[in-house]
Amino acid sequence: LCPPGVLPLCCRPPAWDRATRPPPSPLQPPGIPCRSFSNNKIQVELDGSSGVAMMKLKSPPVNSLSLELLTEFSISLEKLENDRSCRGVVITSAVPKIFSSGLDITEMCGKSTEHYGEFWRAVQELWLRLYSSSMVTVAAINGSSPAGGCLIALSCDYRIMAENPKFSIGLNEAQLGIVAPFWFKDTFVNVVGHRTAERSLQLGSLHPAPEAHKLGLVDELVPEEKLMEKAAAVMAQWLALPDHARQLTKTMMRKAVLDRLVAHREEDIKNFVTFISKESIQKSLRMYMEMLKKKKS
Amino acid sequence: LCPPGVLPLCCRPPAWDRATRPPPSPLQPPGIPCRSFSNNKIQVELDGSSGVAMMKLKSPPVNSLSLELLTEFSISLEKLENDRSCRGVVITSAVPKIFSSGLDITEMCGKSTEHYGEFWRAVQELWLRLYSSSMVTVAAINGSSPAGGCLIALSCDYRIMAENPKFSIGLNEAQLGIVAPFWFKDTFVNVVGHRTAERSLQLGSLHPAPEAHKLGLVDELVPEEKLMEKAAAVMAQWLALPDHARQLTKTMMRKAVLDRLVAHREEDIKNFVTFISKESIQKSLRMYMEMLKKKKS
Amino acid sequence: LCPPGVLPLCCRPPAWDRATRPPPSPLQPPGIPCRSFSNNKIQVELDGSSGVAMMKLKSPPVNSLSLELLTEFSISLEKLENDRSCRGVVITSAVPKIFSSGLDITEMCGKSTEHYGEFWRAVQELWLRLYSSSMVTVAAINGSSPAGGCLIALSCDYRIMAENPKFSIGLNEAQLGIVAPFWFKDTFVNVVGHRTAERSLQLGSLHPAPEAHKLGLVDELVPEEKLMEKAAAVMAQWLALPDHARQLTKTMMRKAVLDRLVAHREEDIKNFVTFISKESIQKSLRMYMEMLKKKKS
Predict the structure, then answer these.
(1) SS3 C92
(2) What is the dihedral of CA C285, C70, C4, C259, to 10 degrees?
(3) What Gene3D superfamilies has UniProt attached to this entry (chains A, B, C) (predicted)?
(4) Taking CA atoms, what residue in A is nearest to C284?
(5) What is the nearest CA distance from B104 to chain A, expressed in angstroms?
(6) Of A134, A144, A231, C250, which cross-links A140 as Cys (Cβ 3.0–4.6 Å)?
(7) Looking at the domain assignment, is residue B13 inside a domain?
């Protein structure tokens, strides 16, 4: 299935071979089914008995996707991916009312072009890892989830959202005067179809949870207090399938879209850096940040 | 985003740069916010204060898309596109009960191959301009809209239809024994998805307004007397977005389908001319016209 | 429309030219409008007056798609395709409660690689013929229809299913530890869209009839005793269209997906043979067959 040349992620030594690997080594100390590791901004807890990891974004006040958080996210995913005992991951937020506010604007404003490039590569890296993950990925969306936050949810295998009309989700980049990159768009189209994506992206819509459900942007709504219970139940359903077949199927469904970024990755970084460096765009972003500050105070 | 080589429309000097252009020159006479121009078959009125143009098809009895009307339509769009003060256009009909009956069959029957070629190029030109327009385009569908009339509606950003079950809309070419070209199909699939398009195109279905709404062929139904009011409200919502970002997003969504015709334009003309010149097809069209005449009398 | 080189099916001497052929020869004996032929596992009855053939799978206990049945199916389709008086075919089952249980696992288990290759070519052949058929194809799904049975239904122009929640349908390959090939997936995506296909394929879901209808996997549900009546009515609606235009439209909608298999046919066979020959897969299939045997007894 791989195009010629070495591809970083979607064509890595197939993670799905883990399915036929032996179970976790008996040398592993028994009675300690739960391992956890924590970075500055991400908490991970892996339940060795179920094979399910809980990954919590914890970067108050709004889980902005800073370079640091993005890097920790990618590293955490990689660790889990390489852990034989981990088969699924639930992604959620440790911050009340917000899943993630999306890309950290301060990383895109008043910095060097080198910084912009490094930042964008980290955004790509996270998406490439998450969208191609061989693990079952479930988003437990316990708060609002605009822009990059929405992308994270869209990249999972299943999306459950708290049934709270105050929580909204969407790719609202156009509202900020910027444009969602093509691979955000491709991911969105794969979930909601072309027409819904076209309209929502052009209007930069943030959809309240009930509307998001109606559009197919999220798969299910549950009362907030039932979110984790539901995520566990969904995970169990997906893990009932043989890993190998499920993973090959996932690859088949997502490969075309993953390959498109892989093939144009450097070009995409260059485009982003050029675009974001424009004085008109910088001005828009400064104004937006001013507005946010005023709103806060 | 542009492929190599100069492309006519979808890659023109980016119209979205108008967004960062200065507002209309102060030399422009104040107090005259409304300009209008009129051709034989199209009336255009531009409200300089809102930036919204109203474009009305006025070619009784059924707004057939003749070579003349198509040409006027393309010229009018170009004028508005080049007018700094125009940001959106509402397309509707000045003829009661009919939005547009589609391509004028008399242009396709008993004429020279040169004429068929010229006619088809004009159909392509209108679609290329409308589907790639940098303006917000809203179809206010105040009557039936078969075939080419449906294509015009499908090419807009938003479709509002009068809530009248007697009005129907669809790509019914198959009913006439002809085939919708691939770019009609691509535009249709982008709006309603593959399955709905496949079934509707094979059956040549004309969907009554309520069904068209259910299928996603139109976005909204309103009582006929509220149509213009609703179109203005929708337009205001879309114009609230920064032009630049909205336009880049629109291009991203539509470019693949636009490029496909651009790349095969001459071939598509040749195919059309060959197909329409066949005696069997000419006979079908003559029979259809006879039927229409009898129906009228 | 044809790519260079001779293609087997979707680019055969266009079957749609039959539309302009003369009606059945008057030399044909009058008063015998009904012809039938029967193979071991398929019964075909053609009603010469309506131009509609009824094709019944009759391979108890579950209409497994064995090499023999697949071959008879392809030959029957070809016969009808070449019969001027046949314009449409209804596909259904002569076995109670089951439409078809899908590919015959005994053909994929414990056989030679040559056999696997021959078997897979027969599966491809059936799909290429059915999905590209110039006839109107209606699936009258009068029982459960997993895996390859579902593919047959998906390849028709219209799907009517008995309104019985005990009957289910879906591409459940993942449940068996195997993976639906890309052209099963492409056919599925064309019917239900990318997201529904992604979720359903990864979970290997078998959808009860009401759910299948909600997802768009089948077009209509009717009480079981009305199934044939409804199929006839739907067929009449589709046959009301001129064949030529309908067939060209169908080709336009399906060609991309057909061409993809045609271009990769030998590679696809090789992939299948390699995959199915793996000891781990053979073991899965043996276990599955054991389970089925136990269930039976």
Answers:
(1) strand
(2) -60
(3) 2-enoyl-CoA Hydratase, Chain A, domain 1 (3.90.226.10), 6.10.250.170
(4) A242
(5) 29
(6) A231
(7) no
Q: What is the pLDDT of residue A158?
A: 98
Calculate the alpha carbon distances from B155 to A127, B158, C39 in Å: 32, 9, 51
The number of domains in chain A is: 1
C285: its two tokens: 């299939």
- Of C88, C148, C149, C170, catalytic: C148
Tell me how far apart the alpha carbons of residues C153 and C227 are, in angstroms, rounded to a whole number: 14
Q: Is A173 a catalytic residue?
A: yes
Q: What is the CATH number of the domain that holds B156?
A: 3.90.226.10
**Any residues with CB less than 8 A from the CB of A116 and at least 6 apart, and which?**
A107, A108, A272, A273, A276, A277
Q: Is residue A211 part of a domain?
A: yes
How far is C76 from C99, CA to CA, in rounded Å? 18
Which residues of chain B make contact with C246, given a CB cutoff of 8 A?
174, 202-203
Give CA separation, A253 vs A110, B186, B234, in Å.
39, 21, 36
Decide if C257 touches A, using CB distance below 8 A. Answer: no
* pTM of the full structure: 0.90
Residues B217, B159 contacting (CB under 8 angstroms): yes
Residue C135's nearest CA partner among C213, C25, C44 is: C44
Find all residues with CB under 8 Å of A167, minimum gap 6, and list them.
A97, A99, A141, A142, A143, A144, A145, A161, A208, A209
Question: How confident is the model at residue A34, as a pLDDT?
Answer: 61
Domain extent for C207: 34-296
- Residue B123 contacts C, CB cutoff 8 Å: no
Q: What is the DSSP letter of C22?
A: P
| C-alpha closest to that of B154 among B122, B194, B184 | B184
Dihedral, C73, C75, C76, C81 alpha carbons, nearest 10? 120
Test the C interface: residue of B176, B198, B257 with most C CBs within 10 Å = B198
Q: Compute CA distances C222 → A26, B164, C55, C160, C216, whole Å.
A: 56, 29, 19, 7, 15
For tokens 């937006």, name the residue.
Answer: A288
Q: Chain B neighbours among A 176-195 (CB < 8 Å)?
A: 176-180, 182, 185, 193-195
C245 vs B174, B194, B197: nearest CB: B174
Among the options C57, C65, C69, C103, which is catalytic? C103
Regarding an ipTM greater than 0.85, the answer is: yes
Query: With pLDDT > 70 as the criterion, what percentage of chain A qualifies?
Result: 89
pLDDT > 60? residue A98:
yes
Q: Predicted confidence band at A37 (pLDDT cuts at 50, 70, 90)? A: confident
Per-residue pLDDT of chain C (297 residues; tens, 9 = 90+): 323 332 222 223 333 333 433 344 444 444 445 678 878 999 999 999 999 999 999 999 999 999 999 999 999 999 999 999 999 999 999 999 999 999 999 999 999 999 999 999 999 999 999 999 999 999 999 999 999 999 999 999 999 999 999 999 999 999 988 999 999 999 999 999 999 999 999 999 999 999 999 999 999 999 999 999 999 999 999 999 999 999 999 999 999 999 999 999 999 999 999 999 999 999 988 988 888 888 877
What's the angle, vertex CA C88, arms to CA C87 and CA C91, rounded to 5?
155
pLDDT band at B33 (very low <50, low <70, confident <90, very high): low
Helix-helix angle C113-131:C265-277, to 10 degrees: 140
Cα C256 to Cα C268: distance, rounded to the nearest angstrom: 17
Radius of gyration (Cα) for chain C, nearest Å? 19
Residue A217's identity, in one-letter code, is L
Separation between Cα atoms, residue C201 and residue C171, nearest integer Å: 6
To the query of whether residue B103 is one of the catalytic residues in this protein, the response is: yes
Q: Is B173 a residue of the active site?
A: yes
Residue B295: the pLDDT is 80
Per-residue pLDDT tens digits for A186-230: 999 999 999 999 999 999 999 999 999 999 999 999 999 999 999
In this structure, is residue C25 part of a structural domain? no
DSSP string computed for B93-142: ESSTEES--EE-GGGGSS--HHHHHHHHHHHHHHHHHHHT-SSEEEEEE-
